[in-house]
Amino acid sequence: MDINRFRDSTAGKAIRTERGYNAFVPSSLPPSIDYDKEIVGLLSEADIALGNLSGIGALLPNPDLLITPYVKREAVLSSSIEGTQASLSDLFYFEAANKDERKKEAKETDVVEVLNYAKAMNYGLKKLKELPLCLMIIREIHKELMRGVRGEHLTPGEFRRSQNWIGPAGCTLNNASFVPPPVHEMHQALDNFEKFLHDKESFPGLVQCAVIHYQFEAIHPFLDGNGRVGRLLVTLFLCEREYLVYPLLYLSAFFEKYRNEYYERLLAVSEKGEWQAWIKFFLRAVAHQAKDAIDNSKIILSLLDRYRKTLRDKKSSMYAVSLLEEIFLNPFVTIPYAARKLKTSYPTAKAAVDKLMACGILSEVSDRRWGKVYRAQELLSLLERR
């Protein structure tokens, strides 16, 4: 890491360690932020968009119909930023597949990593009902994230006890692009980070969230999974501060689309103290994704209403109607999966699947005689839209 790139930064300092390598130590929070007109305007726009999104969530009779697929969509996109190769279709199919198949495939697919992200999100949201967002919760969601996947040997749920670094494959500490603080300085930075997490007076919440995300990435306290945990923190923070009634906002689609700028903006804070540019980028992401979530939610709920009307017109059974709601949680279904979800017999579940096929809601996507898989393609296309 070239120490000269960090000489003029106000966000931290580059040090020469006793072991002879350079590392970056972030400054204590809070930073000094110049609230120019652009930041004020973006902050207002993001606040309004989040308020509108939260309003939609509060009116939903069954919020899980949007929350569940949105959490999984975020899991896919956040994991893809780190190079995990699994689509939303892969994830839904995996969950609907036979349990025995799942055990065979679990160690051979990136889907498990994505599933862990969704589990970590849900775990964190549950813990927020008991505790404020803190380092303990962060460690616990990291443990959930790394359970049974690549990197599980890298002390899941524990802050690192050795130095890590960021750079191209095969690089070393001496030629890494970025080296986070050594262990002692890391713990000092984490103590300050936790205090800032609990500060509810010094900063507008969305600006504080942007600062928190940067600082976590700069500290890089785990040996693996830092990027995903850092993005999880955004949603957990916004829910804890009641910007959102339900977790319907996810920024990974924006970060993935503008991946190069995302990393450049984060690095520019470390190298040059460019807080303003990073905060503007972050606020644009919040406003854009909140508006996108509002639009997509309305389209999905309209589709649900249309399907419900179709089933009513066809005088469908209660099982077919119940299966429709299950499909909005997962657009893939097998008959055994439907039977488990509906808590009914195989023949009754098959009749419900057949009814949804007759109504054009489901179509078969496998040509097997046994273990057939069905998909709600129109819904899936909406969920996969970026």
Blueprint (SSEs and pairs):
Blueprint: E1 12-16, E2 22-26, H1 37-59, H2 64-81, H3 88-96, H4 99-105, H5 111-127, H6 135-146, H7 183-197, H8 205-219, H9 226-240, H10 252-257, H11 259-272, H12 275-313, H13 318-329, E3 332-333, H14 335-342, H15 346-358, E4 363-364, E5 374-375, H16 377-384
Antiparallel strand pairs: 1-2, 3-5, 4-5
Describe it.
By secondary structure, the protein is mainly alpha-helical. It has 2 domains: 293 residues, Orthogonal Bundle (Fic-like fold), CATH 1.10.3290; 71 residues, Arc Repressor Mutant, subunit A (Orthogonal Bundle), CATH 1.10.10.10. Helix content is 60%, strand content 4%. The protein is built from 16 helices and 5 strands. The strands form 2 sheets. It has a 3-stranded antiparallel β-sheet. Helix 2 packs across helix 5, helix 8 crosses helix 12 and helix 14 crosses helix 15. The longest helix has 39 residues.
In short:
The protein is mainly α.
Helix content: 55-70%
Shape: elongated
Instruction: Give the name of the CATH architecture of the largest domain.
Output: Orthogonal Bundle
Tally of DSSP β-strands: 5
How is the biggest beta sheet arranged? 3 strands, antiparallel
Spatial order of the strands forming the largest sheet: 3-5-4
Arithmetic mean of pLDDT: 90
Number of helices: 16
Q: Would you state the CATH class of the largest domain?
A: Mainly Alpha
Which terms would index this structure?
16 helices, single chain, Fic-like fold, 2 domains, 60% helix, Arc Repressor Mutant, subunit A, 386 residues, 5 strands, elongated, 3-stranded antiparallel beta sheet, mainly alpha
